[in-house]
Every structure is written in C-alpha cells, then in structure tokens.
Amino acid sequence: MEVNEDPGPIDSHVLYDQDNHVSSAIWDGQERGVLRCHEHTSMLDQWKLTPIQIKLVEKAGFGYLRLLPPMSLDNALITALVERWRRETNTFHLTVGEMTITLEDVALLLGLAIDGEPVIGPISAPSSVCEKLLGRIPDELNGGMVKLTWLKEFFSECPEDAPPEEIERCTRAYLLYLVGSTIFSTTTGNKVPVMYLPLFENFEKAGKVAWGAGALAFLYRALGNASLKSQSTISGCLTLVQCWSYSRLNVGQPKFNQEPYINSFPYVLKWRGKSCTRTKCNVLSYRKALDSLNASDVHWLPYKDMDYTTIPEDIKSSLILRASRTMLLCFDKAERHLPDRCLRQFGMHQTIPKDIERWERKSRIVDHGIDLIGKMDLAVKQWSERWHTIAKGVDIVDEDRYMQWYQKITRKFIGRVTSSLESEYQRTVTAMREIASIADLVSTEGLDSYNTELLNEVKNIVHKCLTEQIDETPKEKMTKKGNRKRRQKDHLSVEYE
Fold it and tell me: Domain range for residue 442?
C-alpha cells in the first residue's frame, strides 16, 4: 500500500454507508480502541443440571450449546474483524474478497438447528410471563429484562426429587440464562430479555425452532452496530466470531496446550484446549495482518476433514441451507443472509454477486401486547421460502474479473501507512484505551476506602492522559514545538536589534 493510496470504495453503490463506518474515523486518525465484548460463558458450568433437565434441554434444541466451553475472548482480534464488517452486505470485506459467518458455521461450530420455525412470537407482559413460567417475579424488570444473577441465584440447583413443574421452571430459567449468556447476550452485560421465555414453555415446540438462524440474525445486527464509528461495545455470540476466525484465517490463531478435539461435535470444542493469546497482539497488529491478508492465509473449507459421522442427522440434512439467500429473524431483528457473496466458502467459484437493494433497519420498540409476526410478515415470508433460494455455483468463472470488480467496490485498507513515531504513538494510545476500559469495568464493591481511592486515582490519571494526548498526533506536537521555537527566536531578535 502506498502512503497516499485511496482506501476506497471507488464505487460506493455497494458500501453506501461508508461515512458512518468506523474505518472512516480510523483513516482520519480517530482510534476508538478495543471494543468492550459482552459474553458470559464462564459461569455456565456453575449450573447443576439433573439428568431429567439435560433431557429437556436436549429436547428444546440446546443439547450441544450447553457444552460450550468457557472461552477467553481476544477482544483485539474481534475489534479488528469488526472494522472490516459491513452492514450493507453482512460480510467481512477482506483483501481476498468477501467472507462471512454463514448458517453452516452456526450449525457446525455451535450445533444449533438452522432449519425450522423463526425465533419470533408475541410479546407479553414480562412480570406475568415470569410468574407463569418461572413461578416467581424478580424484584427488577427494567426494560423487560431480568438479571442473569437472579436466574442463577434462584434456579441453578434443582433437586433431583423436585416435582415436574419445578423441574420445568428451573430448566426454562437455565435456557434463558444460556441464550442470554451466549447467542443473545446484550450490551447491558448482565441482563436477558424475558421475551425469549415463552418459546421455552413447551420444550418439544422449542426443539422445532431454528435457533441457529436466530443466533445469526442477532449476531449480524450486533456486528453491524459495532461497525459504526459511534459505538464502543459489542454483544452476540462472540465465541462464534472468534472460532470462525480461528477456523478460517491465519491471523491470531492460538496454539494448543494439548491435542485438539478434531472429531468432537460441535466443532467449537476443538478450541477448548487452546492456550491464551491475549497478550500476543493488539488491535493495530491484527489490523495490519488483515490489511495484508493473502489467499494462502485463508482456509476456505475448514470442515472438510471433520468426521461427518459425529454430526446429527437433522443438522446434516439441513446444511444445504448454508447457501440460501434468505432473511434471518430474531424477534424485532431481520437480517439478510447473502451467501452468494461468499461462494468460495462452499467450494464454489466466486462470481460477481447480485446487486443489493438499499434498506434501512427499522428499530422496533419491543413492548408487551405486540405480535411481531404480523409486523414482520415480509421477513417471515422470505424465511419460509429459504429452500427455494439456494445459490448455485457455475463451472467456468473468471475470478480475475470478480477481483477487479471487488477492488472498486470495497474498502481496501483500514489503517494508514505511518512513520515509526506515528505508529508508536497509535500503539500507546490504543494501550491507554485498553487500560482505561479495564479500569472502568473494575468494581469498587467490597474494596476499603484506601483501595477505592487508589482505583479512582488510576482511572483519573488514565483518562487525563487520554484527554491530553489523543487530540494531537506526534507530527502536530512537533509542529507546535517548532512554532514555539520560531516565536522565541523572533522575540529575541526583536529585543537585540
């Protein structure tokens, strides 16, 4: 990349929202630092499920998701990936072309169903839903959300001799906790919407829901929101994002402490033996790696060596939907699944994809008494036609023609080529932002007055340094310093004339 090369897009008919994208701010020198990532897999194993509960969880379609291992998130890697996510196409715009997280990835990495009824339904009063399905009402129900800690406190240990009604209540609470900690995690950090709970009223019906498609709709929306320059947090199933990257890109891949679980299902279990990579790279390092990504750094077919006998038949039979151009739903969220833009992920040649229509995501207020199915009937209809909209490859393709087209419509680079001084400055600012982010998350609860004062002093110092340093680059500071010297010289010459 040349220093003054245009990062693109040259033709903005695809990436029409470039001005609001975080890459515009970064190109102008406005670093936002590492995203705050909200996911809570670390507490899942503290729930003590009875054999009867496990059967109910499996019947509801979450027998594999409950095996999700506690995952140490690489926030810097996720941040760098988000910088290349485009909500206009629901794909990552990489140097080698577009790639995305598809229904195939959700099915094989998480073991969730990608065919079935959409994740949507009527919204009832949260208090009445909790009383009916959990047998109690939480003290706090702000915005129709319940605290994860409340669910864990009252329902995490169900006696084996409990009556059937109590077992079902505890299991519903676990399922709400599970989705609120993983596939439907919110930026609140510790709450989950009660609106999902009615979907667990009947465990058999819950097992007919396309939870994987709903998880992907939620994640697409979260990635899109986080890609805007005004945002600093991200939610959704970030373990899926990270393991998708580990599986497909030679960037930030961890080393294993032991032999990987290659033939385990779901495929996410392969990464439970990884070593920690948190200190390996920062955002700038990952950004540089993605800006210089080559075709040899991409594993287009990461599941081809997988033991397909371990995949459940219902998931295996639905994998053709990986290439379905359809609409994904999760209550008020409708997101487009556009696999025709990433055909190489299915072993096909990539052609220039169809033009995409501009559309505005509508922010619907999810309140009780609303039946979203009627309000989202077009999206529901598109999902119902998913088996009839499957992308097919062609035998002969000029992929050079595709890349020539792609180079014109994409954002080629995220970061500028900078001098060593400028680069060191950016690394320092990024590190300071990370420290500030960590300090802000540390609670003073339980600390004595001395340690509380120390923590607050650390926060104040870091934020003061950021305020003083981030407005000026080293080049600007050197210019100001030079101007001051010239003014002093001029002043002296006037005095001694």
Answer: 420-495
- The answer, yes or no, to whether residue 271 has pLDDT greater than 80, is yes
Q: Cβ neighbours of residue 106 under 8 Å, at least 6 residues apart? A: 112, 114, 212, 213, 215, 216, 240
Q: Angle at CA 204, nearest 5°, toward 309 and 160?
A: 90
Residue range 388-442, pLDDT digits in tens: 999 998 888 888 999 999 999 999 999 887 644 455 666 676 667 667 767 766 7
Cβ contact 349:7 at 8 Å: no
Contact, 266 vs 284, CB < 8 A?
no
Same domain, 427 and 396: no
Domain end (from 355, 377, 409): 409
3-class SS string, 151-204: HHHHHCECCCCCCHHHHHHHHHHHHHHHHHHCCCCCCCCCEEEHHHHHHHCCHH
User: What residue type is 206 in one-letter code?
Assistant: A
- Residues 445 and 468 reside in one and the same domain: yes
Q: How far apart are CA 196 and CA 175, in angstroms?
A: 9
What contacts 24+ positions apart, CB below 8 Å, involve 354-359? 355/13, 355/14, 356/14, 356/88, 356/89, 358/16, 358/88
Q: What is the largest CA-CA distance in the chain?
A: 100
Distance between CA atoms of residues 238 and 236, nearest Å:
6
pLDDT digits (tens, 9 = 90+) for 34-86: 999 999 888 888 899 999 999 999 999 999 999 998 888 999 999 999 999 99
Question: Residue 432 burial (CB < 10 Å; 0-12/13-18/19+)?
Answer: middle
Q: How many domains does the chain have?
A: 2
Distance in angstroms (rounded) separating the CA atoms of residues 75 and 73: 6
Average per-residue pLDDT for the chain:
87
Query: What sign has the CA pseudo-torsion 49, 51, 56, 62?
Result: positive
**pLDDT-based confidence at 255, cuts 50/70/90?**
confident
